[in-house]
Design goal:
The complex is a heterodimer of chains A (414) and B (599). Chain A is an alpha+beta fold and 414 residues long. Chain A contains eleven helices and ten strands. Chain A has four domains: 38 residues; 120 residues, Helix Hairpins (Orthogonal Bundle); 134 residues, Immunoglobulin-like (Sandwich); 89 residues, no CATH class. Chain A has a five-stranded mixed β-sheet, with no helix packed on it. Chain A has a five-stranded mixed β-sheet with strand order 4-10-9-6-7. Chain A is extended and about 95 Å long. With 599 residues, chain B is mainly α. In chain B, strand 1 and strand 2 form a beta hairpin. The longest helix of chain B is centred in the C-terminal third of the chain and has 38 residues. The chains are: A alpha+beta (414), B mainly alpha (599). At the A-B interface, helix 1, helix 2, helix 3, helix 4 and helix 7 of A face helix 4, helix 5, strand 1, helix 9 and helix 10 of B.
Chain lengths: 414, 599
């Protein structure tokens, strides 16, 4: 309460103070016969000098902020394409900072230098085609360079992933992420949102899941109505319900019937061999763990609203869109430990953040990301089980490790 | 039709006007302009307050603030700590108010109305009645938007772009209930207001120019308003359709934007829609909207910089050409907002190309401003200060657009604070500077009195210092990878505490400047309202300007603007310091001397 009073008082006194200032200024204006439309010499001079002073302050502030907070400890790009992006960013940054300094300097210096002086008339100069051509052509030329370089990087970054890329699916929902690795066959199991149940939170498509969903649609999950119960309720004349309740039950029934028809269609066209794709997938909920040097093809999908998968350290961002799969491919080049050393920050970790407004807890939607050396990565893999409960790693571990070593050694520090 | 309307207005003038017909349901373009301005100032005040609320949260997250509790109450700021849903509500409504109600309705609405008939030499708008309708639809939509702040479940909370499915599903966030419905209704009415207003501006400029007012003799303000109105008429209907489809998805169970969704444990049966469709429709307006906001400000500053440099605007035809080029290009750049939306990357490359093209006419404008100042005789009226400020922010905000237009670089900075900083400098600051410049410059024409210059200087210097103080550091928050619309950046503490600390430091700097800037506006509010009643009486042509509005026999023209004959135009509006002339300005109504070249 006390501070509310203070806030109100400050505002009132502020307004009063300005009122008094205006009053004083008006009285002096009357006294000196000054008119508002005629800017006196001293005021004009003051504003002209302020232009220079402001320019200096602006540049000083800019340089200070840039030196002090330049990259906010983001660190170097930790992926191959990220290196290209950073190089391009630096180039663009140099160009735009030069333009910023040159044009702002011209602006403020002209404003200061050509302020009104007694006896000096402005120079009547209406146009000059040659000059205008110059400052059309020069920006056009610079921009062409920027466009060409930019599109080259863009095309490389967004080109389709080849067969050698490891597939991982990132699943987004309010307000967390889940990763699904494609397992030893490097092919992700199919999915359909209609198969989502308490036992199958990610809607993964297998024969068993389809049957479960169908039966749940008919019988109902605990606490939810299935088609049968809804029909019974609606047909039971002994139950008295309002027209509104009846309507909502009818809507629910209609929806469930439609869903179950779609599920039946799915069940008829489903080929049992597709189960194998899903069965060797590995679902990881706590963190995304990657192998240094491996090429990854990330696919993204969302359960509810649009999210955006943002890996600031890898220079990756892609929206996750309900009803649509999106992709991003990349190659991590520094392990978490290497990055800790580079940043001289033992607490550093990679992160996946949500970067599209998605609801109240948007700001807490994060998954930690780890990039490991081959040995650590293999150890981690061995601790994980596949969708059907078997170990992830089947076969010769030593050979796999050797393969991982060659992958990691592809990354050459330059 | 138009002639009949003019006649009717003339007739009307002979009657004694009642308070209601003069101030409330007025047909007079000047009064309507003032109505737009007052509403916009009020909305601007609200929008600014909302931004101060969420800036406090960002700089001092989780700390109790009586100030927040006082305004937001126990519902949205229990114990003085901002509710995380309401944070999104504040951000959303701040953006909506500033973009649509202040910088579109306020800027274009005010100055198109006040200046178009006066500067082309017409008695009023082509249709006074439609003009009044436009103003009242604007007022109604403003009120609905404000009301949405007070509903139980909160205002719209899906950002000012209201992307579905978030905005379509009340289960996703509480603001997508009644608050979102009101948002859509308000925006629909706003679009209607803007459309009929724009049609009126176009009709007036095309049909009602006075004798001698060739298109190539129109002031650049009028050119800017014309291009703005055309862009608005072509772009706003698309937003209207986007809003209607969203409305249908919300109310009628259609699936334009919805597909395969499970929300709040409920499986929706919407299949086949695409949220990307909404984004295309939205940004088809959304990007031209940036120029709807910016072009009037550029027109105003062209006029003010020329007048107060006492020099012709450099490259008049190039200025018109660049206005037209920007207007045209603004329609083929929209998808640069969607580089990481999942859109086909090839489509992305097309939009990189068109987007970077728009930098060329923008650069031409900047260099022409600089050359206009060069060897001028600059008078620093408050309007001139703001116009120069506009050129500076237009440069500083424009250059960072080059990074965002480059799709490869956009991957990293998309939706971070870098974007927020970019568009606040280039369209927020520039457009609001243009608006302030216009108010200071044409205040005498609107109210017949002068505003106080010294308060004007104080207002300008606090505003530009705090403006840059807020948005320069913000770029670096974004380069560090801080996503926008985060309630706080505490998540960084879990993986890189050093970065989190640095961001917090920057956020404190930003908020302190934001608060200083907010207090700086008191200079303006006070000056504005005080001068309406107490300011010194204005002379007929206070800035010694050439354009027609300063040729009326009374400083505040009556209904019909010029009693008797309309003025005749003989020259372009930029004959300042012309060699051979006695004065350093020659109004457009002065005939050419024998042998004098026009320009």
């Amino acid at each position: 309460m006390g501070s509310k009073l203070i806030i109100i008082l400050v505002i009132i006194f502020g307004v009063l103070a300005i009122a008094q200032l205006v009053r004083v200024s008006e009285l002096t204006a009357k006294h000196t016969k000054r008119k508002e439309e005629e800017i006196p010499e001293n005021e004009n001079k003051f504003n002209a000098n302020m232009m220079l002073a402001f320019m200096v302050a602006l540049y000083a502030g800019f340089i200070y902020i840039m030196l002090e907070y330049g990259y906010v400890d983001l660190g170097p790009a930790a992926s191959t394409h990220g290196k290209d992006i950073d190089w391009l960013f630096d180039l663009n940054w140099i160009i735009i900072i030069s333009v910023f300094f040159i044009t702002n300097t011209l602006l403020f210096v002209f404003a200061w230098k050509y302020s009104r002086k007694p006896g000096v008339k402005a120079y009547y100069y209406a146009h000059n085609n040659k000059l205008e051509m110059v400052w059309t052509v020069i920006p056009a030329a610079v921009l062409s360079v920027i466009i060409i370089l930019g599109l080259r990087t863009w095309n490389d970054t967004t080109a389709k992933a080849g067969a050698e890329y490891e597939n991982i699916e990132i699943f987004a929902y309010q307000f967390a992420w889940t990763a699904r690795y494609s397992g030893m066959n490097n092919e992700l199991g199919r999915f359909d949102y209609k198969l989502t149940t308490a036992e199958n939170p990610y809607g993964i498509m297998t024969k068993e899941n389809i049957n479960r969903s169908l039966s749940l649609m008919k019988v109902g999950e605990p606490g939810h109505n299935g088609i049968e119960r809804l029909e019974n309720q609606l047909n039971d004349r002994s139950i008295i319900m309002s027209a509104k309740d009846r309507k909502s039950l009818e809507v629910e029934l209609g929806r469930k019937e439609r869903m179950s028809r779609l599920l039946e269609a799915m069940s008829i066209t489903y080929s049992d061999s597709l189960d194998d794709l899903a069965n060797d997938d590995v679902i990881v909920e706590d963190s995304l763990v990657l192998l240094k040097g491996q090429n990854y093809n990330l696919s993204f999908r969302s359960k509810d609203v649009i999210h955006s998968a943002y890996f600031p350290h890898f220079r990756i961002q892609m929206n996750t869109v309900p009803g649509m799969t999106t992709y991003f491919k990349f190659q991590p080049i520094y392990t978490t430990n290497e990055m800790k050393r580079k940043l001289n920050n033992p607490e550093f970790e990679y992160a996946l953040l949500c970067n599209k407004i998605c609801g109240g807890s948007h700001y807490r939607m994060k998954m930690s990301v780890k990039v490991l050396e081959p040995k650590e990565f293999l150890e981690w893999q061995k601790s994980k089980a596949t969708y059907d409960g078997t170990p992830w790693i089947k076969g010769n571990e030593a050979k796999l490790l050797e393969y991982y070593e060659t992958i990691a050694s592809r990354v050459v520090e330059n | 039709m138009a002639a009949a309307a003019q006649e009717a207005i003339h007739e009307h003038d002979h009657h004694e006007e009642s308070f209601v017909s003069k101030y409330i349901f007025s047909y007079d373009h000047k009064m309507i302009g003032k109505q737009f301005l007052l509403m916009a100032i009020f909305m601007g005040l609200v929008g600014m307050m909302l931004s101060v609320f969420f800036r406090i949260q960002l700089a001092w997250p989780g700390e109790s603030s009586d100030f927040l509790n006082m305004f937001l109450g126990d519902r949205w700021a229990p114990e003085g700590i901002l509710n995380q849903d309401m944070y999104l509500g504040l951000v959303t409504i701040h953006g909506t108010i500033m973009v649509f109600f202040v910088l579109t309705g306020g800027l274009s609405g005010t100055f198109s109305n006040v200046l178009i008939p006066l500067q082309v030499g017409a008695r009023d708008m082509a249709s006074g009645f439609i003009n009044m309708m436009s103003a009242w639809l604007f007022n109604i939509s403003s009120i609905i938007m404000l009301v949405s702040l007070f509903v139980e479940s909160g205002p719209a909370m899906s950002g000012w772009t209201v992307y579905p499915p978030l905005s379509a599903l009340p289960q996703a966030v509480s603001g997508s209930g009644l608050g979102m419905t009101l948002w859509l209704i308000s925006l629909t009415i706003f679009i209607a207001s803007s459309l009929i207003g724009s049609l009126n501006y176009i009709a007036t400029i095309v049909n009602l120019r006075t004798k001698g007012m060739k298109m190539t003799r129109m002031p650049l303000t009028i050119w800017a308003f014309l291009v703005t109105a055309i862009v608005g008429v072509l772009a706003f209907p698309v937003l209207l359709s986007a809003a209607l489809l969203l409305f249908m998805d919300r109310v009628l169970g259609t699936s334009f934007y919805l597909s395969d969704i499970i929300i709040g444990g409920e499986m929706l049966d919407n299949v086949g829609g695409s949220p990307i469709l909404y984004q295309h429709l939205f940004w088809f307006l959304g990007h031209p909207e940036v120029y709807i906001v910016l072009l009037p400000a550029l027109g105003i500053s062209s006029e003010i910089i020329s007048t107060n440099s006492r020099k012709p605007i450099f490259g008049y035809r190039a200025m018109i050409g660049s206005l037209l080029a920007i207007g045209f290009l603004s329609f083929i750049v929209w998808a640069h907002h969607m580089f990481v939306s999942g859109m086909d990357p090839f489509l992305g490359s097309v939009f990189v190309f068109t987007t970077l093209l728009i930098a060329i006419p923008s650069a031409v404008k900047v260099f022409n401003y600089l050359t206009t100042l060069w060897r001028g005789s600059i008078v620093f009226t408050p309007a001139m200060l703001f116009a120069i400020g506009l050129v500076s922010t237009f440069i500083s905000g424009g250059v960072t657009g080059i990074i965002l237009a480059d799709s490869a670089l956009d991957i990293q900075v998309h939706d971070t604070y870098f974007v927020v900083a970019h568009f606040h400098v280039v369209m927020g600051l520039s457009a609001i500077f243009g608006m302030f410049a216009g108010v200071y410059h044409w205040f005498p024409k609107m109210y017949g009195r002068m505003m106080n210059n010294r308060l004007g200087y104080a207002h300008f210097w606090t505003t530009i210092v705090s403006g840059y103080g807020v948005f320069l550091p913000m770029h670096f928050v974004g380069i560090g990878g801080a996503p926008r619309r985060y309630y706080d950046n505490s998540i960084f503490d879990t993986f890189n505490p050093t970065a989190g600390e640095m961001m917090l430091d920057l956020n404190v700097i930003i908020t302190v400047f934001a608060i200083i800037g907010a207090f700086g506006q008191v200079f303006f509010f006070f000056n504005f309202f005080y001068s309406i009643f107490r300011g010194p009486k204005a002379p007929l042509n206070p800035w010694r300007s050439n354009t027609l509005e300063w040729t009326t026999p009374t400083i505040v023209p009556g209904h019909g603007n010029w009693p008797g004959e309309l003025p005749e135009v003989h020259r372009w509006p930029y004959d300042y310091s012309k060699p051979g002339a006695e004065e350093d300005f020659i109004p457009q109504t002065v005939p050419l001397k024998p042998g004098e070249e026009e320009h």
